[in-house]
Amino acid sequence: MPSEKQVIALCGRVGKILLENGAETGRVESTVEYIGAAAGVPISCHAEMTAIFVDADTDTATHLIKVRTKDFNLRQVDRINSLSRAFTSGTIDYATLESRLTTIESSRRDYSWPQKILGAGLVSVAPMLVFQATWADLGLAFFVGIGGYLASQWLGRRTTTPYISIGLGGMVIGLLATLLQRLGVATSADNIIISALMPLVPGVAITNSLRELIARHTISGLVRAMDAIMVAGAIGAGVVVGSACVSLLLGGAL
Questions:
Q1: Are 36 and 100 in the same domain?
Q2: pTM, full prediction
Q3: Can the keyword Transmembrane be found in this entry's annotation (predicted)?
Q4: CA distance 18 to 78
Q5: Are 46 and 217 in contact (CB under 8 A)?
Q6: CB–CB of 187/178 below 8 Å?
Q7: Is 43 helix (H, G, I), strand (E, B) or coil?
């Protein structure tokens, strides 16, 4: 049987993976406590956006894990959820849990670039169906959305400064959409911009912030909400700058 300290350390690793990859704090706390109870150690967990505190009711020491949030990867969250359910139901033992957790930690499963590019294009097209846009604008939104997404990803891999990369994506989208309309290729730059911004919109952050607030995890909910607002502000500023650049180069009002 594992020692109490080993269970606490493993629970901390579980919580870190969940929080880093976009799980809400309530899910982190409950998952960690369920695993501890299934391992025979009564665990108490408190999660915030930058740290997780784990301790056992029979131990005075508290295990602190510092967390640095990054891009959301809900695949990792799903894998941890499935693993914890298998352990708490008795389907796997502690050794298997630890082994699979190590595998999840070391794996960096991700979609291929062709899949990401196609996904960005399809997400950019969907809102155009609501606008009942022309077929030309629908096709243009596909490529403009891809352009903005690629610009954001390119800069995001070259700088750690937050919100700059997402702002560049918005700027590229605003520039391309406005330019296409000025050249007479597109009918509505506004519709194209709104649609092409969809791959950049922080949908998971907004959803999680609301879930946190509803669950009365006020601090985490407000932090996530503020982060989503900053992302939205960066996107909007980028669009304005991109459209303004076209207007300055070609003349005329915004």
A1: yes
A2: 0.81
A3: yes
A4: 9
A5: no
A6: no
A7: strand
